[in-house]
Here is the input.
Amino acid sequence: MSETTPDRDPPHPSGGWAGFILAFFGIFLALATYQGELGAWRAGVMLLLAAVTLWFLQLFGDSMTRGHWPTLESHWGGLGGGLGGWRISPSLVYLLGALWFGGMLVVVAERSETAEALGLVDAPDDPQGAENPCGTPPPADLFDNR
Here is the structure.
């Protein structure tokens, strides 16, 4: 029987916490979509970003339990100093991936409110007393056939 080193152990799941959080988040998004608070596409993108974020967090946690700490190493030398570079540990890549996709999730979640507030998204037309940002009433309809 051969012995395996900790570096070569297959990844093992650290528990069902990520699946539980993702299921709860999915139910929350489904209810928000059902009530009309959130569009289906936005909910799908948010669920995908949450799944990828939780996956990276789980990989980071598994890597940390194996003793692989986040490191960034530089090496300048070899062949007369001509070869060198940087080495990023896998656990640091997992952490950066979780931060990146988690940040994208926050941006997508916050974008819906800020887009309407900034006027980047077309608001529903309100012909009754609608005013433009300057405070003047809207121009008369060009095709008004009264």
User: Anything to note?
Assistant: The chain has three helices and two strands. Residues 30 and 43 are 8 Å apart (CA to CA). The helical segments are 17-34, 40-65, 90-118.
